[in-house]
Amino acid sequence: MPTPQTILTRKTGAAAFLVFTVNDGGEAAVRDALAELPGLSTAVGSRAPESALTAIVGIGSQAWDRLFAGPRPKSLRPFTALAGSVHSAPATPGDLLLHVKADRMDLCFEVGQRWTERLGDAVTTVEEVHGFRYFDMRDLIGFVDGTENPVGQEAIDAITVGDEDPDFAGGSYVVTQRYVTDFESWNGLPVPEQENAIGRTKLENIEMDDDVKPANSHIALNVVTDDEGNEIDVVRDNMPYGDISGSGEKGTFYIAYSSAPDVSEEMLRRMFIGEPEGNYDRLLDFTTAVSGAQFFVPTRDFLEEQPPAPGPVPETAPEQPDARSDGSLGIGSLR
Q1: Is residue 318 domain-resident?
Q2: Domain total for the chain?
Q3: Can you tell me the distance from the alpha carbon of 177 to that of 283, in angstroms, rounded to the nearest whole number?
Q4: In a domain? residue 314
Q5: What is the phi-psi region of residue 131: left when phi exceeds 0, alpha when psi lies from -120 to 50, beta otherwise?
Q6: Interior/surface letters 63-97, b for 16+ CB within 10 angstroms, e for the rest
Q7: Fewer CB within 10 Å, N or C, the chain?
Q8: 191 lies in a domain?
Q9: CA dist., res. 181 & res. 141, Å (int)
Q10: What residue numbers bound the domain in which 118 lies?
């Protein structure tokens, strides 16, 4: 079994999220940098092994065929923009995702800086967010985030591609969004109304019973089930971010890993379009999605070994008639 990139860790105190586009002509440099990332992460992490450093890289749909020949992950596709009756989720450019997390921001900074230096002018950075742990795993809105994440083998199963796509078994899919929160409006809500928007108590972090939980609460709309009624999980690794001054943006960097993109897409459809349509996520009245991208996270073996690069497209000569040495076109004998 190929070795997956290390996605599942304990909750860390810091994270850096970088999204890049690959510039024309930068493909070879990107391939080299991808192969070097696992070793770079290991080397930096060895300086503080207690800090749980890991660096995860994902590759977007539009970049995949520019970087690799051969098959591609069967469910890899661009992020789908959503336009509900009130709120929208935009799709924004993204060819590469670097997600670095550790207990210390200096370790995240070191990996991110060294890897972006290695990439050089092969890429353009389109998003950079530094996340931090906020008290007891709370979002800046005051609620605990990621409570419903699966654990143990359930978490592994939730994020790991299996035999349904054997060429990419052990990989994962990941979706990212950056949300900007309107704290003036949110903080103006009484706590009971905030709890109704989330579907969970604020202080104790206890989920409301189904018979009292509002149908448009964040938790109610994020539950996706299969045909047999079993809940389908993703693993969220969200982080708060923000500028300290009142003029800067603050909010949540949303990131969710899964074994297929379908479940994340369905969650977002329910949030923005509504379930039923029009019954959208109440939390969106206070936070706005400003980015959205989707990636495939290949295994560590894939990064280090890699399939061949795509070759140049051969120039096809115009089709010629079957000229013969006697000057005829092979239409028939003149004899």
Answers
A1: no
A2: 1
A3: 15
A4: no
A5: beta
A6: bbebbbeeebbebbeebeebebeebebeebbbbbb
A7: C
A8: yes
A9: 8
A10: 14-305
